[in-house]
Amino acid sequence: MARASDASKQLAKVRNEGKRIVVVTHIDADGLSSGSVAFHALARSGAISSVRAIPDLDHRALESLKADRFDFYLFTDLGSGMIPELEKAFGENFLIVDHHQLPPEQASSPNVLNAWGFGYDGGTEASSSTMAYMLALALDDKNRDLSPLAVIGALGDRQDGGEGRSLTGLNRKALDDAVSIGAVDVTKDFLFHGRETRPVHEAIALTYAPFIQGLSGARDSTLAALSGAGLPLKERGRWRSLSELSTEEKQKLLEVLTVYMGSAAGADAAISSLIGEVYSLRFEDSLTPLRDAREFATLLNACGRMDATDVGVAICLGDRGAALTDAMRLVSEYRTKLNKAIQTLQSGEKMMAHGNVMVVIGDDFIEERMTGSISSLLASSDRYRDKMVLVRARSGETEIKFSSRLGDAFAKEVNLGLILKEAAEKVGGVGGGHSMAAGAKVPAARKDEFTAVVVGKISG
Ligand code: C5P
User: How far apart are alpha carbons 4 and 138 in whole angstroms?
Assistant: First the structure.
């Protein structure tokens, strides 16, 4: 908080001088949440500010930002891999609020507020939204009302790895604040989206994390499976929701789901991935997907992946009218896209196993913005949870985007962020991320070389 307070004073000075601040953030749920927290806190303090979301902070993006000549650049959820370049481009006039791993000597730089610099594991204990929330709190205590966005961002980055799928570390502090102002309720239940609002089979089919082969994305098959098991899904002609099932019915449902999750998962693993802490946003309408913090994060992610970051930011800033209608349409389009890609992958032609690395060749059917989602989805499925998944797609004419994720049953200790950073730099690209999730962009002509280096590092 002392460092956040120093950073807030720096921002207050820039504001008082009437200078223009731009918040530059990443397009995923944690990016949109953290950028919105920072922007909201600045705007309500009277700063002249704007917010912009980008898929990657690469050299091209940096040049474009520089050309716009803002007075001050506040980077959220990105920038930690580019500190020397940012210093060169902006001198003292930038601040990074982030949770991606960085060289320890850079963590204490005055321009960096990074979770790793304060003893937190940025991959599991502190999202960028939580870091941005700490900065917002240092700016003004009234920003405590932004704490739910910290929770949403952390869930978007799958930082609910504590016991019973709970948030831990610094994220927990943000959660405690959200609970203390009455904005969030914590209960224990199934983690499927639409727990209170959708028919049971729909809630299961619409949830992609974890990905249950045969059920996720397949509403009719899910309905058939549950009806076949004798679960009473309707009451007086009306579909029942998960929250209406009795304890015995939930137990029975779990048994059905465990069968689908395959032998590798086992009952205990299935239970621990399907049931856990549920975070309900009490100020949101209970009939919307914003009521459940995980579903809120999925909605933001869809906005980012569908190239509608403005819609995501508008929702974070409180728009519950047109933006929400747009976002709900985007979520459904996003699911359709994911389903299509998964169906193409079912044939197996586009997937190549290199030892325990599963490479997905998405050049002609996966969009650049979707690689992260597809990679996450595959790594959370029972079939690949002991693998490292590496998805690739075209990025413009000359580059290839890679997204990698580790399944949670991957047997070896590896740090994907470091591996992708080193491999990308070796072939003239840029890469980085967390130990379990990382990305890279490399020249198209050197994609195979890049893959070989990554496979070598993972298997070696
Ligand atoms: O792009 P993708 O979703 O696969 O990225 C996974 C994680 O790695 C994200 O948290 C992203 O911000 C991070 N990343 C990074 N540096 C890159 C590319 C991705 O830190 N060059």
Answer: 6
Q: What is the pLDDT of residue 61?
A: 94
- For the chain, which ranges sit under pLDDT 50? none
Helix crossing, 169-180 with 147-156: angle to 10°? Answer: 140
CA of 439 to the centre of ligand 1 (A): 4
pLDDT in tens, 171-218: 999 999 999 999 999 999 999 999 888 999 999 999 988 889 899 999
* Model pLDDT, residue 113: 97
Q: Is 111 in the pocket of ligand 1 (CB under 6 A)?
A: no
Domains 2-171 and 351-459 share a fold: no
Q: Is 26 in the pocket of ligand 1 (CB under 6 A)?
A: yes
Going by alpha carbons, the residue nearest to atom 13 of ligand 1 is 433
Using an 8 Å Cβ cutoff, are 276 and 164 in contact?
yes
What spacing in Å lies between the alpha carbon of 322 and ligand 1's midpoint?
30
Query: Is residue 169 within 8 Å of residue 118, measured between CB atoms?
Result: no
Tell me whether residue 77 is exposed, middle or buried, using C-beta atoms within 10 angstroms of its C-beta: 0 to 12, 13 to 18, 19 or more. buried
CATH no., domain 351-459: 3.10.310.40
Alpha carbon 127 to chain centroid, angstroms: 9
Q: What is 421-433 written as a DSSP string?
A: HHHHHHTT-EEEE
Please give the mean pLDDT across all residues of the chain: 94
What pLDDT does residue 264 have? Answer: 55
Spans of all domains in the chain: 2-171, 190-342, 351-459
User: What's the topology of domain 2-171?
Assistant: inorganic pyrophosphatase (n-terminal core) (3.90.1640)
Residue 153, ligand 1, Cβ within 6 A: no
Residue 96 has what pLDDT? 98
Measure the CA–CA gap between 460 and 457, rounded to whole angstroms.
5
Which pLDDT belongs to residue 294?
Answer: 96
- pLDDT value for 265: 53
